[in-house]
Q: What sequence folds into this?
């Protein structure tokens, strides 16, 4: 009986030219958006790799150099795209793409897509996740509210019940038809992306486990939407009121609530301005050693210790270059300052994130958004991980350069001494290793559980709505 | 008709819980957006205050050295306030950017420039982030008045006028109207005008409140109000387009929902896809790797080549004492890099301006495609917040920075030690604060006007055609089934 009802629903959609047109348009839109986003992602990855290769080539081409001079010459780190950014770009457009790596200072990633694209960057971009999380639910709402509720308005539901079908079976049929449609569109999105990937980069960059996770959570989300639509149709007095209620929920859940919560998070846990943050860092740094200041007290004290250690009375008698040690002292203190200030900033990010997670518990649209971004590697956690790895790279690089500055080269070297090109070539270039997807999803377990609970609640609402319908507590 | 329709719609609104809730919700969300905007402006002003305090502290420190006859701090023997480089450092001049009275309305916009920039001789005016540190997961969901006006105003009109046309036909009210008035279109137009008037009152309320909170003048307030009301009337026309042909409320709701989804969600998203997609593969190689290569190649240049480049840029230096000497005076060598520094800055700035002009042109063209884009572009330009205002401020900074480097070089070439008087003059003669003047409003305003006229004309055409086709009232689902 259930399969018969599903087939009946599918036939109804196929026979109505307006609905068929809408479904065809939606399928085309999804295919186009998914393919476009995939092609865009492939182009971005290629450009990122080219930029990183060019940076490495420039690093190597400089040849022999003084290590500290090279530390100021620095390096550039180019942000790679998220593992599955072709399906969900997440917050990638708001993040700076290039980070300057240099001695004495931690940079801010600059040149985000949003800052370069002008006013239009204010609007969301239509990738697969955008369509699956916003537009497909809207389609399911229209189809669902004009399906079961319309059957009831027109008396077809009564006819089915008289013929022996239970209300629960009817509701199940409508739910499965809607969910099946949602799953078909999900499969279409993934197939379009895989097809484009095959044509452009042959899956070389595809993260299969993340893809499976993406499909699984979206399947769950579409089940919630389908069940909620059927439940609303069962509980509402008419098709019109079901449609109105569902549309109102959609607008509030997708447009109003996330923004309202975002603004609340910013109000409750305000972030410092860029100027204030930099000024606070500067003030903290001024309290510590300055590697470029030969009269600095802390540096002077360390110098004396080193002189004592080597049993000499003058820096020029040292078999090493004290400058490298002074620079590393400066660097170590700067790192502590950065860890303190950036740690506080990150803690504030986390507080904001916790509030957004709370909102996601009551809003499945936000929950799926958070989980999807985590799976595809395009959320804030991945951004912070990238920045942490870039900072570790900076520290490692500067430390190696300072060590060479202090201990490399002959004992009697002059001011014009330069380390060999082989030394610089031996320093590894930055390579970002994204966190394992299990670790990435770990901080989204609350949202995952909320989706499970929402699925249960929506199915329960269908069950009880169907029972009420059967007991004729609702008009049918 | 309007005299009948307006009281009718007002009565309906008072009896309709959904309608009255929608109006109240709109005003409440609008008020929240205004409050968020005021908070944004307050944070902006706070950042300016902090910059001002930092500058004053630096100036006070320098004055202390002058008064005690010291060249600078004791633990930094190389600092010498008689030199232009250090006078500039301690003047700590900030080029500030004052918020406009309506800056709060576009608080959610992406604004990639600071609100204060210190004119340090080795600073890079182009390599700076926006003044806000933002959590990207939170920032992409801010409520500001631009969002309320562009996205929620159409929904308000939709909720208030969802039943117009469809309900009239379902319940055969249209037949009754035709019997009494001879035609139904006047009644439908009057109902839509009444709904638009009610929505416009809500829109005007939040706009005037925003203008009042920001302390905007008549011109800015009128521009905001004009744009917002024009947009509301435009959506009234689109509601009439749907109402003209809706046989039932359900079809009307579906039609208006589809229209809102296409115009407010899908088209802006498509435009964003194309606009942002153009920069996605741009890793700013020109501003990073290329600029660094040029910078370091300048360090390797022969001193004489650098001096000639400097004189080519600032010919008046050759007439100053250092320029008249055969050999470059000691200590001046560091300034010879400034010609190439400015040359690189100008080249990068020019490339950036070109990119920004392209983005601006794209946004202006996209305005014709969808009214929400047109209103967003117009309101960002009115507010002085967003990428275009950031670009204009950056140009202002580059100009001030160039002037300051010129001042440093000229002072250095005089070979005279500078005194406290010169320092005080330098502090007093800082660059003027940047104040955004709304520009480029004509195109989005024209786009809104064209949409408005086209919407209403098409709606009237559709009404006339529907009446002609079916003689009297439009076809209903009941007619079809019979």
A:
């Amino acid at each position: 009986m259930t399969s018969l009802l599903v087939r009946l629903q599918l036939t109804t959609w196929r026979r109505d030219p307006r609905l068929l047109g809408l479904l065809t348009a939606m399928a085309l839109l999804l295919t186009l958006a998914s393919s476009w986003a995939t092609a865009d992602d492939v182009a971005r990855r290629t450009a990122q790799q080219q930029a990183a290769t060019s940076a490495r080539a420039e690093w190597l081409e400089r040849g022999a150099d003084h290590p500290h001079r090279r530390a100021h010459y620095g390096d550039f780190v180019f942000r790679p795209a998220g593992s599955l950014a072709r399906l969900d770009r997440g917050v990638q457009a708001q993040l700076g793409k290039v980070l300057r790596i240099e001695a004495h200072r931690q940079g801010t990633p600059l040149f985000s897509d949003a800052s370069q694209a002008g006013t239009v960057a204010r609007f969301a971009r239509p990738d697969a996740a955008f369509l699956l999380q916003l537009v497909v639910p809207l389609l399911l709402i229209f189809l669902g509210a004009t399906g079961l509720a319309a059957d009831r308005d027109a008396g077809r539901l009564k006819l089915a019940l008289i013929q022996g079908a239970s209300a629960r079976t009817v509701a199940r049929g409508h739910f499965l038809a809607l969910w099946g449609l949602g799953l078909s569109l999900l499969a279409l999105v993934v197939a379009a992306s895989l097809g484009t990937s095959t044509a452009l980069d042959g899956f070389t960059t595809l993260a299969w486990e993340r893809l499976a996770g993406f499909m699984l959570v979206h399947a769950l989300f579409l089940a919630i939407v389908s069940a909620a639509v059927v439940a609303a149709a069962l509980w509402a007095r008419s098709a019109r009121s079901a449609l109105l209620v569902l549309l109102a929920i959609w607008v509030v859940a997708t447009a109003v609530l996330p923004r309202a919560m975002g603004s609340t998070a910013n109000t409750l846990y305000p972030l410092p301005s860029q100027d204030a943050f930099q000024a606070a860092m500067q003030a903290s740094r001024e309290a510590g050693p300055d590697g470029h200041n030969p009269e600095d007290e802390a540096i002077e004290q360390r110098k004396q210790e080193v002189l004592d250690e080597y049993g000499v009375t003058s820096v020029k008698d040292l078999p090493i270059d004290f400058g490298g040690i002074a620079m590393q002292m400066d660097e170590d203190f700067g790192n502590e300052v950065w860890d303190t200030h950036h740690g506080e900033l990150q803690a504030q990010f986390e507080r904001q994130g916790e509030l957004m997670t709370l909102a996601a518990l009551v809003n499945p649209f936000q929950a799926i958004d958070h989980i999807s971004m985590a799976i595809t590697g395009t959320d804030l956690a991945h951004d912070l991980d990238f920045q942490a790895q870039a900072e570790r790279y900076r520290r490692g690089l500067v430390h190696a350069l300072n060590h060479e500055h202090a201990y490399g080269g002959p004992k009697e070297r002059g001011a014009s001494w330069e380390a060999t090109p082989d030394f610089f070539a031996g320093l590894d270039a930055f390579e970002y290793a994204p966190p394992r997807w299990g670790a990435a999803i770990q901080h989204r377990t609350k949202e995952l559980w909320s989706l499970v609970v929402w699925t249960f609640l929506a199915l329960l609402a269908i069950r009880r709505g169907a029972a009420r319908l059967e007991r004729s507590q609702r008009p049918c | 008709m309007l005299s009948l329709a307006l009281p009718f719609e007002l009565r309906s609104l008072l009896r309709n819980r959904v309608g009255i809730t929608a109006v109240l919700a709109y005003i409440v969300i609008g008020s929240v957006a205004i409050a968020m905007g005021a908070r944004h402006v307050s944070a902006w002003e706070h950042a300016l205050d902090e910059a001002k305090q930092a500058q004053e502290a630096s100036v006070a420190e320098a004055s202390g050295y002058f008064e005690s006859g010291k060249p600078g701090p004791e633990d930094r023997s190389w600092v010498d306030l008689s030199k232009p480089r250090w006078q500039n450092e301690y003047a700590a001049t900030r080029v500030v950017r004052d918020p406009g009275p309506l800056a709060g309305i576009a608080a959610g916009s992406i604004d990639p420039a600071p609100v204060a920039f210190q004119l340090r001789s080795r600073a890079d005016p182009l390599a700076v982030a926006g003044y806000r540190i933002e959590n990207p997961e939170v920032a992409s969901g801010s409520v500001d008045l631009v969002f309320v006006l562009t996205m929620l105003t159409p929904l308000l009109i939709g909720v208030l006028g969802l039943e117009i046309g469809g309900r009239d036909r379902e319940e055969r009210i249209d037949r009754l109207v035709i019997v009494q008035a001879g035609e139904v279109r006047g009644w439908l137009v009057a109902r839509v005008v009444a709904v638009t008037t009610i929505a416009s009152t809500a829109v005007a309320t939040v706009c005037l409140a925003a203008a009042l909170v920001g302390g905007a003048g008549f011109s800015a307030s009128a521009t905001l109000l004009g744009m917002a009301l024009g947009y509301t009337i435009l959506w009234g026309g689109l509601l009439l387009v749907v109402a003209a042909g809706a046989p039932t409320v359900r079809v009307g709701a579906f039609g208006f929902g589809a229209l809102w989804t296409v115009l407010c969600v899908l088209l802006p998203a498509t435009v964003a896809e194309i606009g942002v997609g153009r920069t996605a593969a741009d890793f700013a190689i020109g501003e990073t790797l290329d600029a660094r290569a040029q910078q370091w190649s300048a360090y390797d240049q022969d001193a004489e080549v650098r001096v000639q480049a400097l004189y080519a840029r600032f010919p008046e230096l050759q007439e100053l004492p250092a320029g008249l000497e055969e050999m470059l005076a000691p200590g001046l060598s560091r300034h010879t890099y400034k010609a190439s520094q400015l040359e690189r800055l100008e080249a990068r700035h020019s490339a950036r301006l070109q990119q920004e002009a392209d983005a601006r042109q794209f946004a202006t063209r996209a305005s014709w495609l969808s009214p929400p884009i047109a209103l967003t572009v117009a309101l960002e330009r009115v507010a002085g917040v967003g990428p275009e205002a950031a670009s204009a401020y950056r140009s202002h900074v580059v100009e001030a920075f160039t002037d300051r480097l010129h001042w440093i070089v000229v002072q250095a070439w005089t070979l005279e030690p500078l005194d406290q008087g010169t320092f005080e003059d330098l502090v007093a003669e800082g660059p003027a604060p940047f104040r955004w003047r709304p520009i480029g409003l004509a195109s989005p305003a024209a786009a809104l006007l064209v949409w408005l006229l086209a919407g209403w004309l098409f709606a009237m055409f559709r009404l006339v055609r529907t009446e002609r086709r079916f003689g009297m009232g439009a076809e209903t689902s009941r007619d079809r089934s019979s």
In short: Chain B touches chain A through 90 residues (CB under 8 Å).
